[in-house]
Amino acid sequence: PCCNNLFLFLPAEVLLDMRASGSELGWLTSPYENGWEIVQTVVNGTLFYTYSVCSIETTEQDNWLRTTFIQRRPGTSRVSVELSFVVRDCNTFGGASVGCKETFNLFISEADADVGTNFRKGQFRKVATIAPDEVTQGRVLKVNTETKTVGPLSKKGFYLGFQDVGACVALLSVRVYYKTCPSTVQSLAVFPETVADALRKVEGACVENAVSQATPCIYCTAEGKWVVPVVQCQCLAGYEATGDSCQACKPGYFKPSVSNNFCQVCPDNTKPSASGASECLCEEGFFRAPSDPSTSASPPSAPRDLTSMTLPGEGKLQLFWSPPLVTGGRSDLMYSVVCKLCDEASCTPCGEKIRFEPGPTDLQDPTVVVSDLDSHLNYTFTVEAQSGVSQFSAEKPTATITTALDYTDPPKVTEIHLDDRSPTSLSLSWTPTRRPPAHINHRYELMYRRKDDSTEGDVTTYKVLILDKSFVQIDGLIPATTYTFRVHALGPEGNPGSYSADHEFNTFPLAEPQFGNKPTMVMVAVFGVAVILLVVVAGLLLRKRLVTVHFISTVNVYQHKPLKTYIDPHTYEDPNIAIHKFVTEIDPSVIGKQKVIGVGEFGEVFRGVMKIPGRGEVPVAIKTLKPGYSEKQRQDFLSEATIMGQFSHPNIIHLEGVITKFKHAMIVTEYMENGALDTYLKGRDGEIPPYQLVGMLRGIAAGMKYLSDMNYVHRDLAARNVLVNGNLECKVSDFGLSRVLEDDAEGTYTTRGGKIPIRWTAPEAIAYRKFTSASDVWSFGIVMWEVMAFGERPYWDMSNHEVMKAINENFRLPAPMDCPSAIYQLMLQCWLHERLKRPRFLDIVNFLDKLLKSPESLKTIADFDPRVSIRLPSTSGGDGTMFRSVPEWLESIKMSQYKESFARAGITTMEQVLALRHEDIRNIGVRLPGHMKRIAYSILGLKDETSSLSVFAV
Ligand code: AMP
Question: Which of the residues are catalytic?
């Protein structure tokens, strides 16, 4: 039975099968007697012919058995010969078996034709000696099977010969066959049965309903094994591979293309498919993008909340919108924007001139910046939401806005042109840097005076015209006189733009009467006609140029004010003259000191009152000069008043006057109930909402803008130099000249000898004393930080040296706790290393105003890292030991006010502190959210042993 199995499984093309023939084979034996003999055997009722030999009595046996002629199949050169045989054990014959052997030999002889019985040993060559694996000793036959490959063969056919040299052998079966690689299906390709010879490349074909670009192929080895299939057959659309075939997709399923994928369930919003479907048809109102066939989606709905915002710089605005509520089931949502100029009747495209950033189409984010817009036009922007299926839908989901540039500051006027003149009039015109929006009428303020008008004292008198057009004719002037003009635009609320430079124009001299030159009548007539024509033309021109003058007045301009430049008192040779140019002398009798409220560098600061006729008694602050001063000190003391006296702004501390005529010089200013800003904020964590803090910052920025407009560089802007009144209005103070060098506790001597408050000062000012409004902006950034951190010391306990190093390495203070992100961003802008890139105070004021106008903009809070931002010491003194006591810890985080509460609650050890949870802290009596956070964060910091406190975020 094992042999049968073997035959079944061998892939073969059989040339000869002794057993299967079932009849006498007609093989030649030689010698005819005593050699191989044919034996009939019946196994299970079937008759078999086998050959056997057993001539062991004598040596020198040479018994041959030769097959019939076996045809070789053309194209093959090797055949397999499989023998099954039994060999008897020589030992079982005892001494009788002198010549007994246990092997026999296989021979082959090639021939081009059947030679019949013409058998010649000499034509055979030996293939192999056949030895049994097991010899048979008893009644149980041990059948051996052996396969030999014979070749190469070249003639038409061959004979096999079996030479017996004295063994007792029964040849049960002989099979001669070619090995083949059986027909096979591999990866959806069919390959035919192939004779295994040498390694052979075989081409196949894809199964039904499958296709391939290249012909599938595979190799058949000499051993009859298929190897290295190269097959790319894929089932057609609507079919999927199931085993070795491609089956049609079931109803309700589909497969869109030739691929190895399986059929998919029809997507949502489609009609059910039939068997073998390559697509599922979309339901009404749904579409499919060609790029992804396995979807069915509806177009998105319209963008929402389309708004615009004018950006700084000329001609730029940003559009924002919210994504549509319905995306329609696709994620490739995009937007496109179209700009039109519309009037009541029709719209026209805005044209090529305007630019979109990042572009007008394929916008992935719901925003776009439009630039090169004209400030006097109204633009209509239409934003369309699109997805991969939009092209199939007639509906256009759009949002539309009509908007115009909306500048808060009026345009600039740079040039004034003289258009016409006469002895008594000048016609002037000018062009603003941008045209006003259609709906807004810019007005202009024109000031002029006679150039040589003698200035009375400090006062110059100007005539002022308020005009609603950018041209004017001024009449009633004096002939042959030079006039000085300047003009600026006024914004919608009358807010002024910056002035043009002063321009000078002359009126014509009066025409001298011409004597001694008698014109003829003709000339008179011609001249007369010309004059009439001129008058008519001029009249027409003038009609066109009619301007509404809204308001004419004269203003007295103090000479130093229109110049808007602060004057350094040191430019005066005598400081005593300088001070009286700018400051009122107060009679000491109207002043009453009440109480010491502070100590300045030159002496005590008192709260007091001043009697002012008509205003009663007003509270004032009185700075005094301590006795024993030198003349130099007196001048330095009063120089602050000389400077302050030049300023007039709600966010600059107001000087009432000075007392210089008495021994004890005094400076009297408005009284600021809440004192210095840094002290005011300390301990008020969380009490003042961010909105109010930003309001305070806005005030400081406005004051600083005023100072920078006046070309005054403060050099020591810090929260300690800002005063706060009862309404929480902040005013910039401290204008000493020598102050930066001398009286500031923060001042540190630099290598060049001056004193500089390092942690408030911009790097370029520290490095090479480049003090500018831009360095004041840096300091303003630090003030913002101080304010948002409720009076925290900038850079905590780092040394000045460490601060300078950190700044140079591009580290910046981290966001204070609960600081609105927009405010922190502004701080970072103020701390840009390149001073020209920092915002100007004008930009800062505008930005803060914008934030204050939309308080939601303050809701986003900047990221806050408690470990670096509070700089909570996790150990006392940095030596790795914990705080020894709870009070010591509370003190370190400036929460000493809770010492008693903690003690009362029985929290006396740091271990207990570490175990506190939020509600425990609340139960102890910490209610203010700011304090709560500070304590909770500190505990977090204490727990975090790894917190690195010496480095802080960029
Ligand atoms: P100063 O010499 O200007 O730095 O003033 C010293 C201190 O006096 C300040 O820190 C304030 O606490 C207080 N002070 C100065 N000016 C005023 C004022 N106008 N109103 C209230 N307090 C003031």
Answer: 716
